[in-house]
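Figure 3 (text version): structure tokens given as input.
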């Protein structure tokens, strides 16, 4: 039987408060940002940007929860959640978008239109 790499949500990467990174990042597991990241992120799991987190660059992931600040394009294949402390500047493409009151969003949003089933 072949081994399968399944993201259980237990293992994740983290950029701590006070840390700064510039560059490209890709991961098969979840990623939490509480520091500053400048560059592009490609993640097959969930990305969480904490209240002190700051992302300047593009984000592509499966799910995301934003409580901090982002500037760039966000492409989330499933669900994007903008919490009340979020400040997002840039375009969003996602299947599902949840925005709490007081969240700030400046940009455009493109949501996937579900395919209609054929009538038989």
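Below: residues designed for each position.
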């Amino acid at each position: 039987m072949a081994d399968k790499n399944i993201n259980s949500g237990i293992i994740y990467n983290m950029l701590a408060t006070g840390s700064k990174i510039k560059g490209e990042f890709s991961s098969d597991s979840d990623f939490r940002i509480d520091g500053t990241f400048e560059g592009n992120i490609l993640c097959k799991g969930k990305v969480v940007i904490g209240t002190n987190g700051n992302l300047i660059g593009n984000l592509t992931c499966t799910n995301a929860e934003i409580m901090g600040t982002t500037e760039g394009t966000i492409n989330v294949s499933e669900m994007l959640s903008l919490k009340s402390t979020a400040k997002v500047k840039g375009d969003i493409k996602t299947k599902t978008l949840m925005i709490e009151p007081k969240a700030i969003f400046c940009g455009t949003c493109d949501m996937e239109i579900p395919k209609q089933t054929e009538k038989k």
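Residues 1-7 have pLDDT under 50 and may be disordered.
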